Amino acid sequence: MSDELEEKALAFEAPDGAEIEGLLTVRDVAEFLHVHPATVRRLITRGEIPFLRIGRSVRLSRSDLELWMAAARRGRPLDDLRAAASP
Predict the structure, then answer these.
(1) Which uninterrupted H or E stretch holds 6?
(2) For each of the chain's 87 residues, which pLDDT tens digit applies?
(3) Among 1, 33, 37, 75, which residue is least crowded by beta carbons within 10 Å?
(4) Distances (CA, A) of 87 to 4, 59, 82, 83
(5) DSSP letter for each residue of 26-85
(6) Residue 50 in domain
(7) Is residue 87 part of a domain?
(8) How far apart are CA 48 and CA 5, in angstroms?
(9) Could you tell me which residues come within 8 angstroms of residue 39 by beta carbon, excluding any fewer than 6 positions away?
(10) How many CB atoms lie within 10 A of CB 6?
(11) Is 65 exposed, middle or buried (0-12, 13-18, 19+ CB in 10 A)?
């Protein structure tokens, strides 16, 4: 994973001290992909990129984004890569 994306990921701490996966904003993802935020929102609306809705906010999981990018590079559906990555 690139340092730029990793630096932008938000780190959260669970009450027991366990780290919860980093989340990115639409703007963070747009900057990383060098596209306009409207492009990221369009991908979300079309269901082409995985996202989380937290209240009215949209966040993208760093690991889901990495899988999505890997799937795009290989021309494979995201679900195939998720299945391969599962234990």
Answers:
(1) helix 3-8
(2) 555 555 555 444 444 443 445 789 999 999 988 999 999 999 999 988 989 998 889 999 888 888 888 888 877 655 554 555 555
(3) 75
(4) 28, 25, 10, 8
(5) HHHHHHHHTS-HHHHHHHHHTT-S--EEETTEEEEEHHHHHHHHHHHHHT--HHHHHHHH
(6) yes
(7) no
(8) 20
(9) 30, 33
(10) 11
(11) buried
Residue 15 domain-assigned (yes or no): yes
Name every residue whose Cβ is closer than 8 Å to that of residue 29 and which is 6 or more positions away in sequence.
40, 60, 65
- Written as six digits, the tokens of 10 are 């938000």
Q: Which domain holds residue 60?
A: 3-82
Q: How many domains does the chain have?
A: 1
Residue 42 belongs to a domain:
yes
Cβ distance 24 to 68 under 8 Å? no
